[in-house]
Amino acid sequence: MILMLKLILSLLTIVSPVNPATQGAVENEPADAAQVRLVDGFTPFTEASVLFDRLGLLEEEVEYEAFELALEGYRKIEDRSKEILTLIDYSKSSAVERLFVIDMENEQVLFKSHVAHGRNSGDEFATSFSNVDGSYKSSPGFYITEGTYHGRNGYSLIIDGLEKGINDKAKQRAIVVHGSKYVAPSIAQKLGKVGRSLGCPALPYAVTKEIIDTIKGGSVIFIYPGTEDYASRSPLLGGHGDWA
């Protein structure tokens, strides 16, 4: 009996204690990575968090919630014909690059760029949004890209708003992706912000053609407004719609 008790005690001493910080970690995932994700405040090892890491994205440049919502909506849009996701994070200052073109198949960030918001959406930051024609505000939510044309702003890309009450009047409002000199990085550096559009996500001329050619023809664009009530309003994410 005594020998049996000694044997049991010896076995207990060689069993490694469980480290709470690494509980739930994916096999072969280093413990410090699990701790980082927990500190950052989002659920470890979800599809979104793992991809966020693989893409080398930082929360200083794009909000994790923006990426998480973008990925959720992207997965639900079945009629996309390109595995490309463009995320525009309007919770960030217009002085920084807040547009990200992501190759979802190869898990690569293809472009980072400055992007304008509507003149009535705010100054340095976009804080007000609308689906109303003539509001000169940006419309948030999910879009699908269509074809291109040459207009008064040069090479431009037609985008179709997919969310009723949120951005479905984009075509009626002539909301398109185009280039403009007021979105140049030099202006952002000099003024601490870029110029504003009439509601279009305008790009610097230097990258406009390359970005448009990459995302045209059936890729997804997600414009994140940074407001707490977006997800509850988004029809694509299960909300009730209706954005003034």
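The record above closes out task 2.4. Task 2.5 opens with a second protein, given below.
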Amino acid sequence: MNIDRLLNRFMDYVRCDSESRDELGFCEKLEAELRELGMEVRRDGCGSEFGSNGFNIYARMDGRGDPLLFCAHMDTVAPGKGINPVVEDGVIRSDGSTVLGADDKSGVAAIMEALASLADSGDEHRTVEVLFTISEEVGLLGSKNADYSPILSRSAVVLDSSSVGCIINNAPATVRISARVHGRSAHAAVAPKTGAHALKAACAAIAAMPCGYVGDDTVMNVGTMACPGKTNIVPALAEFDMEIRSFSQEELEARIAQSEAALREACAEFGTTYEFIVDRQTEVLYVDPTSPIVEELRSAFVSLGRTPRVERTYGGSDATWLHKNGIAALNVGTGMQAVHGVSEHIAIADLADTARLVERLMR
């Protein structure tokens, strides 16, 4: 592996703008680089389904032995345009005006450098597959809508977490709920009793819903609320959005039902009606910690002098949709820190070890 080339590659990648749904330039760049490595490359057109100008990229390098899929996402959060990376004391940061984009271009760079190193060596290797996705940061949309039919691998390594050595084998099912409360407008001073107060009904419902950790396996949150109107009008519409994540499908269903019951009871009290729209984002991800792919990752980390640990997380990643499509997917850390903010950074040593990890697994 060439560390200078890896560093230059990463810096080049983060300078290429690719905020969610605007990933086209970076997609085209990676597609060309994969072809230059002699890989079989194809794209899918799922971006048009959710407003992205980009496309998922699938590539394969044939070899011997069981195939293994490597996955990372190409999009970044905002502010991610005009990124200017700087290196200070072995750490890469942005100039403070944008995110760095290590989430997830550290994963992309590690995969691409490992592929280049493998191609340079001419050594034998396993069959390697790559899936680079779009619009991960806005709901895992690329992996959710990807075409999995070309993929041979039954195991995958997703590079989209923080700490090097961390192996995430368990993630929750997630639902996002949009609630709309319909009341009846009336003049708040002249005839308030003829109205049905949508805002008070929504607030009563929210007050009855727990937020934060609910037991050991579930977390809930109400994140937005809107109520258009004027202070002298009884509001006829109030809307709020919420999210539930749970490692237990049974618990998840119970919390959805509990939330709707709270809304139903509040609307009955205030004479309003409601809509309760459930968007199922992901299902539970679980890979047995004794499975071969976990053991392979453990060994690879140990060979790098890193202490492996298997953990669960409440965070989401493309691993969930790979798992949904029959692939035992694990999410591993690349060293990126303080992601989704202008303080985002990554140590060059962590980025280098991540690329070494990927190359070991490819071999």
